[in-house]
Task: inverse folding
């Protein structure tokens, strides 16, 4: 039997076949989960349907997480189609492009700060509050995606680093809120991966080259590796893990200095 047989998983954030959410949806499907996918805006519906067909997903539904009404509508759709669910994957982040270059203090604005925190962190609480009541007690799991720019300054990551710090705190507070329902809340902190969102970060290529030099595994990680870790974390095999940030980064976060730099 696969890890997620009998579980229903709602996966947000598939923008392309390079998206981390695509790696997660594929791994969850391979592990037996029944999937539903979301998309942002009517224009992107056919793209979502294409991905849904490949994975034989049950349905696709719109959700721009910056709008409460769309989150409510998504919840109603899931309740109507499935009745209940087991897993929600939040693989969403956004900051205006002008926030992601140069020094933090030269780029940050009130508007950029609020938008980055709203879409990249608050939306996780909003999805958790909306979907926890539909989750199967004792086996529900929420998962989000973060990056080590939450803990350490990274060139160009800027306000997104602050939003990820907020998101990681969000994981801990949501885990506390939902623990008594037996619902678990975790994050994967992934190493840098070339996706559409990553393309917006100035200096990404140099950061990836440096990363490959420093990480103990000496290479970047793939969306398949993040997907496999996600499938595990949302499965009953991880029933004792909540409020956790799990690094899938080839060990980069564990290194102080590297042989490769001597
Ligand atoms: P991606 O493929 O570009 O995915 C980002 C997704 O966020 C897209 O599907 C985008 O939808 C969605 N999104 C943005 N604003 C939204 C909104 N208002 N409502 C609903 N969806 C919205 O990039 P990714 O790298 O896979 O990013 C997924 C997650 O992984 C993000 O949280 C990111 O910070 C995190 N992460 C990425 C890396 C990396 O190096 N790539 C490393 C660690 C963590 P549209 O395409 O429709 O705009």
Result:
């Amino acid at each position: 039997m696969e890890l997620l047989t009998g579980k229903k998983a709602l996966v947000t954030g598939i923008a392309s076949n390079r998206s981390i959410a695509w790696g997660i949806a594929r791994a969850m499907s391979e592990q037996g989960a029944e999937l539903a996918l979301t998309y942002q805006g009517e224009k992107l519906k056919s793209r979502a349907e294409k991905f849904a067909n490949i994975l034989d997903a049950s349905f696709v539904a719109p959700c721009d997480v910056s709008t409460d009404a769309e989150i409510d509508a998504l919840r109603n759709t899931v309740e109507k189609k499935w009745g209940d669910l087991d897993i929600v994957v939040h693989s969403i982040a956004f900051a205006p492009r002008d926030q992601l270059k140069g020094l933090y203090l030269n780029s940050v604005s009130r508007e950029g700060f609020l938008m980055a925190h709203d879409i990249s962190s608050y939306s996780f609480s909003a999805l958790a509050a909306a979907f926890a009541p539909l989750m199967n007690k004792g086996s529900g799991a929420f998962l989000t995606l973060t990056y080590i720019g939450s803990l350490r300054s990274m060139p160009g990551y800027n306000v997104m680093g602050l939003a990820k710090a907020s998101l990681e705190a969000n994981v801990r507070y949501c885990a506390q809120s939902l623990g008594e329902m037996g619902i678990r809340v975790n994050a994967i902190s992934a190493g840098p991966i070339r996706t559409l969102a990553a393309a917006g970060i100035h200096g990404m290529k140099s950061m990836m080259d440096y990363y490959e030099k420093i990480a103990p595994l000496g290479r970047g990680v793939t969306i398949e590796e993040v997907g496999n870790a996600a499938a595990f974390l949302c499965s009953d095999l991880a029933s004792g893990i909540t409020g956790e940030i799990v690094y899938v980064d080839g060990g980069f976060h564990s290194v102080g200095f590297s042989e490769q730099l001597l």
User: Anything to note?
Assistant: The pocket of NAP is lined by residues 13-16, 19-21, 40, 44, 63-66, 91-94, 119, 145-147, 190, 192-193, 195-198 (CB under 6 Å). The first strand starts at residue 8 and ends at 11. The beta strands are 8-11, 34-39, 59-62, 87-90, 141-146, 184-190, 244-248. Residues 94 and 156 are 14 Å apart (CA to CA).
